[in-house]
Amino acid sequence: MRPAVKLIRIAALLRLAYGPTRPQRRRDNPLDALIHTVLSQNTSDLNSDRAYATLRQRFPEWEGVHQTPLRQLIAAIRSGGLANIKAVRIKALLEEIWADQGHFDLSFLRDLSTEEVKAYLARFKGVGSKTIACVLLFGMGRPAFPVDTHVFRVTRRLGLLNGRFTPEKAQEFLESRILPGDRYALHVQLVQHGRQVCKAQRPLCASCVLARVCAHVRK
User: Fold this and answer.
1) Does the annotation mark 125 as catalytic?
2) Which of 21, 89, 110, 142 could form a disulfide with 185 if both were Cys (CB 3.0 to 4.6 A apart)?
3) CATH classification of the domain holding 125
4) Catalytic one among 6, 130, 199, 219?
């Protein structure tokens, strides 16, 4: 089965299992999603959400984060893990944006094409393809397809990717073969499926709705 056809079937099976999932219309500053994505690196959603909430409570405006001493930023995001590293990244990112724009409102990105948004964000140090895809998908409501550890694991087990794929190459390969209208729901539901069923250790193959199309089950 061709990957594009298989992905349509996977999307349909997950939709039956988890229900419809639609992206929210976003009108906030895309910088919010960018910083949130930095905080989500190498930690759980629970931890990153907690760190982001604390950060915004202490610093309602990004100018405050930009101006605060590094130690105070570290304290604000400590619950997200790797606070020392992430605080430095956030500081550097805000400094670059300030030097480039003179403000922290990235709403102008909504007037650009998706390729132009990618090119703009890729200019900043430490902003890779997955981070850009997260900003597009969650911060701007654009049809992107980030590949995190759950998506990478599940799609490899399904036989969509071979051992030569890196997460970056997998993102490019999968996104080009997923219908734009399916990308949000498929990403969200593959993550959910990876957490609940297709776990890293001891996947629950017997109760998996994707078993009929899964290469791992057929081994």
Assistant:
1) no
2) 21
3) 1.10.340.30
4) 130
Query: What's the Rg (C-alpha) of the chain?
Result: 18
Q: DSSP assignment, residue 25?
A: P
Closest CA to 41 of 123, 114, 128: 128
Task: Give dist(CA 147, CA 66) in Å, integer.
Answer: 29
Rounded to an integer, what distance in angstroms lies between the CA atom of residue 41 and that of residue 38? 6
Looking at the structure of the chain, the number of domains it has is 2
Average pLDDT, integer, range 117-124: 96
Nearest to 140 by CA among 167, 163, 166, 121: 121
- Among the three residues 120, 139, 158, which one is the final residue of a domain in this structure? 139
Q: Report pTM.
A: 0.93
Give residue 196's pLDDT. 96
% of the chain with per-residue pLDDT over 90: 91
Tell me which residue of 56, 51, 94, 53 sits closest to 75, measured CA to CA: 51
Which CATH number fits the domain that encloses residue 205? 1.10.1670.10
What is the domain range of residue 124?
30-139
